[in-house]
Structure formats: C-alpha cells, structure tokens
Write a structure and sequence with these properties.
With about 325 residues, the protein is of the alpha/beta class. It contains nine helices and 15 strands. InterPro entries: ADH-like_C, ADH_N_2, ER, GroES-like_sf, MDR_fam, NAD(P)-bd_dom_sf.
Length: about 325
C-alpha cells in the first residue's frame, strides 16, 4: 500500500511575525527510498526557537526553502530501509521536518535505544536543542559555580527550565524571568529563589531588588530590553551567555543590539554567544550527567505536546507568545 505523506511547507517568507498564510498543508505520496536511504515515520517533533530563524533568514541554521517541509528536529521509527546499518523498527533522532514521513539518508541520524529512555527524551532533557544547549551554556560557557547569583530569561521555556536547574545543581542562587504568575509559580517549584514576571513588573528594578550585589551569570534567551536590564545589573567579572534572542527573530534583518554593552567594560565582564554544535565532543559526558541528574530528580522538564501536524504553525507561534511551559513538542 502506498504511504501518504502530510507535511507543512513554507508557502512564503514571513513579513515579521509568521502567520498562518505563510504555511501550507500538503499531502503527497511517500517517495520510494533509494539505496542507502530509509523511510521514517515521525513520532515527535521539537518546536524549537531556531526554526524561526530559518524562515526568512539564511543564517547559522540555514534557510528553509519555499514549498519544502519546515525544518525541525524529531524522533521516529524506521518503517522501510535500504541501508544495512538501519533496520525496520529502529528508533532514530535527526532532522525530520514538519511531516509525517521522512525519506532520507542516514548520515545525520542517530539510533536510539527506547529501553534506556523514551525516544522523545532526546528532544527534551537529553536533546541537542534543549538539555545539551542548557548544559553547554550554563556550565561550559557560563562557568556557573557555588554561590553565584544567576538570572535566566525565558526561564519557563525548555532551555530555560533546564538551565535554571543546572545552576541549582552547581549551588547557585537562581532568578527566573518569565511571563505571567503561573509561570513564575512553576519556576518557584523547580527551585528558583526569585522570579520576575516581565509582563507585569519592571525587570530592571526587580533585578536590582532580587540581586542587590549584581548578577554573576545572565543566561539570555530573549535579547532586547531584558538583556539591557541584565547588563545594567552585572556584578564585577560577570558572564553573560547569549543562547538565543526570541524577541528579535521576527526581524532578523534589523536585530536590535544591546544599548548598555559598555557595562561589560565597566565591570570587567564578558558576553559570549554559543551554539551547542560547537560542543559535540563533550556530548557523551553531557548526556550522562543530564541522565544522572534526571534520575536523581534534580533536573525535570515538563512537556507541552500539541496533537496533529496541522497544529504546527500554531505551535510555532507559541514560541513568540510564551503560550507553553517546558518543552514544546508536536505529535503528527
């Protein structure tokens, strides 16, 4: 029986915030695999911030071609194989795209053992764009240590949630910045000693109140005015970690940089950006640490799972609106 693929493609380049009209839902027969290829039935897709940077901008993560499935990482089960190293029923992680089936080569696929952890864990706490990103940024770039005062923006998102908990593992005092009372309550439940509701309070004044001696580490997922507020409240020799800038992704051609960057010089501090793929040699240790802390209950990541491929554009919009807590996933 011929399999039918459903996919969400990029119909046009967004002008600012993506809208439903920028996407198109397409059905077509699944192509026959060529020698060396496999057919994967997609199980879960990660709705990650990097996706937004590919829609109208040719940057670090590439540019999504028009009429092609939206770039997305995912997990899935192989249902047909013309590759001797991958068998039917193997579970894999890799670039799946916003579609029900993916016909691809295996160079960028990773086999998963579903007996060790649910496959979707590799999109979440063990995921490259989530747990590993938080680990690289907080522990390797930010060099957080016991006694540090740390603030994390978009702290109730997937990366932010793990980053807050990793700082706690290292013995830091953590301030989480998120939007709304419910998210602040969640941050308190994972060990944040202070929270800031950026929708209903002044971030700059709250940072001064909660961190009167300044921030030793600021882990930024947002950019814009929140980054400036943190720069204005740095301790001496602080580390600012640039993980993302969700406030800027709707206008990548005119990104607004920080106006208070001279605070770095005044306070003998540093600001360093990173992407997790620069730390691949350390992935085995990072995964082992995260798995251990997860088993001990020190790192927990709630999931928000949207159902149905047609929900992909709406799920992507949640990244901008903050309409989720923890890891945002989609099950086609």
């Amino acid at each position: 029986m011929q399999l039918v693929n459903q996919k969400v493609v990029l119909a046009r380049r967004p002008q600012g915030m993506p809208t439903a009209e920028d996407f198109e839902f397409v059905e077509e027969p699944v192509a026959e695999p060529e020698p060396g290829q496999v057919v994967i039935e997609v199980d879960h897709l990660g709705i990650d911030a990097f996706i937004a940077t590919t829609l109208d901008h040719d940057g670090h993560h590439g540019q999504n071609a028009l009429q092609s499935a939206i770039i997305a990482l995912g997990t899935g089960r192989i249902v047909a194989s013309l590759n001797d190293d991958f068998a039917v029923d193997d579970w894999v992680f890799g670039g799946m795209g916003a579609q029900r089936y993916n016909v691809c080569g295996t160079e960028m696929l990773r086999k998963l053992d579903p007996n060790l952890a649910p496959p979707r864990s590799y999109l979440g706490v063990l995921g490259m764009t989530t747990g590993l990103t938080a680990y690289a940024g907080m522990l390797l770039v930010g060099q957080v240590k016991e006694g540090d005062t740390v603030a994390v923006s978009a702290a109730a998102g997937a990366v932010g949630t793990v980053a807050c908990q990793l700082a706690k593992v290292r013995g830091a005092n953590v301030i989480g910045i998120a939007g709304g009372p419910q998210k602040c309550e969640f941050l308190e439940s994972i060990g944040c000693s202070g929270t800031i509701d950026y929708k209903n309070s002044d971030v700059a004044s709250e940072l001064k109140r909660l961190a009167p001696d300044g921030l030793n580490v600021f882990f930024d997922n947002v950019g814009g005015s929140i980054l400036d507020a943190a720069l204005d409240n740095l301790a001496m020799e602080a580390r600012v970690v640039i993980c993302g800038a969700i406030s800027q992704y709707a206008h990548m051609a005119a990104v607004e940089g920080p106006s208070l960057y001279l605070r770095l010089a005044e306070r003998n501090s540093s600001m360093r950006g990173f992407t997790v793929d620069h730390f691949t040699s350390q992935f085995p240790k990072m995964e082992a640490d995260l798995a251990g802390w997860s088993a001990e209950g020190k790192v927990n990541l709630p999931e928000h799972i949207e159902q149905g491929l047609e929900r992909f554009p709406d799920a992507l919009g949640m990244l901008y609106s903050g309409g989720h807590t923890g890891k945002l996933l989609l099950k086609p």
